[in-house]
Amino acid sequence: MPVSLPVQIEPFSVSGGPNQQVIYPQARMANQSLQGFINQSIIRKTQELINKQVSDMSGSIAEMVGEFEIKNNQRGVLSLTQSNYAIYHMAANGITYMNSSTFDLQNGKECRLRDLFKPGSNYTRRISDIIKRQIAARDIPTINEFTRISPDQSFYIADKTLVIYFQLFEYTPHSFGFPIFPISVYELQDIISETGPLGRMATNN
What is the pTM for the complete model shown? Predict the structure, then answer.
């Protein structure tokens, strides 16, 4: 059953004790099978962020806050980000991790970056060149040289924009925040899959 209307999103939360609350989204729709698929994927990614914080901590956690943002909920495309901040006892600073999910509701699947483009298109090089130009134009401070994105680089969709992002400390200092690179679908229009999420975003109707 194709889904093109905005999906109803409800916030849920899980608590691990005082000062530890993770809020995550759950979808509500008529297609129960698709709803279950989406919600299980979101729950899994919520737990992955929690597990990463716990495994990285050298002491007991003093505070954990999990949040989400809906980036796109139109044209049969649901795209969202989840973040998790945690700090352990006696630490001077905490750390935040982020992940994202993009669902093609018309085709009933979760998208990887490669799924957004035509087969055989050199999307990694094209996107990497755009990011390099943005780093220079925006005078973004780097701690590691950026060369190229991975084939399954983290991303989300926000209306007519593909947003590529990296984790803290991956290429930029902590003070810069998450390095986020918005790219208009029209910069990629010749290589995007016309029947995929970006193709739908690029139409004017």
Answer: 0.93
